[in-house]
Amino acid sequence: MPVIEAKSVTKRYGDITALDSLTLRVERGESFGFLGPNGAGKSTTINIFLDLVRRSSGSLSILGYDPEENPLEVRKRVGALPEAGGLYPRDTPRDHLQFAVRMNGADDDIDELLDRVGIADAADRPIGGFSKGMRQRLRLATALVGQPELLILDEPLGGLDPAGARVFRKTIREERARGATVFFSSHIMDQVELICDRVGIMHGGRLLLTDDVHEFRRRMDTVPQMKLSVEDPPKGLAEQVSDSDRVAQATVDDGMLHLTCRSPADKSAVVRQLDESGVAIADLHSRGPSLEQAFLRTAEAER
Ligand SMILES: Nc1ncnc2c1ncn2[C@@H]1O[C@H](COP(=O)(O)OP(=O)(O)OP(=O)(O)O)[C@@H](O)[C@H]1O
Q1: Whose CA is nearest to atom 14 of ligand 1?
Q2: Does the beta carbon of 40 sit less than 6 angstroms from any atom of ligand 1?
Q3: Is the ipTM, as predicted for this complex, more than 0.90?
Q4: In this predicted model, what pLDDT tens digit does every residue of 263-289 receive, in sequence order?
Q5: What is this structure's pTM?
Q6: Per the CB 3.0–4.6 Å rule, which of 73, 84, 218, 239 could disulfide with 65?
Q7: What are phi and psi of 297, to 5 degrees?
């Protein structure tokens, strides 16, 4: 049974079709990146998955349940990070998570949750004084409560600095190792390809394509070079990277790792390997097309 199965799901607001006949399957254990520019229909889709918005037509199954018919069954099994809201300024992260754990009937250790997302120091400070990134880390911790089978995250990278993005990637890896399925939206392709197996491209309410993430890079990108900013690059990094069969050339210069891969399709795998090995990647500068260019190419190819 797929974890998410949407068939011709459509959402209309008057004359506006926010989501146009979405058909999509996500299988158990997958990490699926849902990409698209502003207004593409990503939040609408996620809100329908979470029963925060009702679809106009089509059928939907989340872990075998229709969220409209069995919202509680879905809520019990899904860790959600909706687009906004849900945090009270006077609460502390501890209050907030204690409430979330109680509501979920779970028994998570609050300190451990806060530690995982790197805000244990701020456990007892009011959320009102938090930065956007700290709030986002707390919202991620909230989604983890109860060890959900499925994580549905709307723009989880929003407001995160490079260190926050690294915490996010590590957390997603841990969740997947536990067996969770992950579905998350983003408009930052470079980040998405570090943590997902498949991507879906939304544009104008329509799902233009779904593809294996490396295949997607291969199709979109013709340039084998890329640059990565690395915090405190370990000694011998260039040599370590050059050892890979996928890498033709690597040099490190003032915190910047310049890479030429054997082919553009190798770029995502190389960066992923570095990230997983603990190299602190602060930023990616692929010389390939931006996501916007990739969207346009995809949209044009569809015509
Ligand atoms: N409540 C609403 N009433 C009317 N139109 C809406 C409503 N919610 C969304 N829309 C419209 O539906 C379309 C899709 O919006 P949606 O928020 O799903 O996009 P998105 O891909 O999540 O974009 P963003 O990255 O900006 O959040 C947009 O044209 C938006 O204006």
Answers
A1: 41
A2: yes
A3: yes
A4: 888 888 888 888 888 888 888 877 666
A5: 0.89
A6: 73
A7: -60, -45
Ligand 1 centre to CA of 234 (Å) is 43
Integer CA distances (angstroms), 106 to 52, 111, 142, 148, in order:
22, 14, 12, 10
> How many beta carbons lie within 10 A of that of residue 129, not counting itself?
9
Domains of the chain (ranges; CATH) run: 2-212 (3.40.50.300), 224-287 (3.30.70)
Please tell me the distance from the alpha carbon of residue 183 to that of residue 202, in angstroms, as a whole number: 14
Contact 126, 138 (CB under 8 A): no
If you measure from the C-alpha of residue 91 to the centroid of ligand 1, how many angstroms do you get, rounded to a whole number? 29
Tell me, in angstroms, the distance from the centre of ligand 1 to residue 43's CA.
Answer: 7
| Cβ-contact 154, 162 below 8 angstroms | no
In the block, which residue shows the tokens 């991620």?
A: 140
Residue with tokens 């701020």: 122
Rg of the Cα atoms in the chain: 20
CA atoms of 303 and 282, how far apart (whole Å): 37
Check pocket membership of 200 for ligand 1, CB cut-off 6 A: no
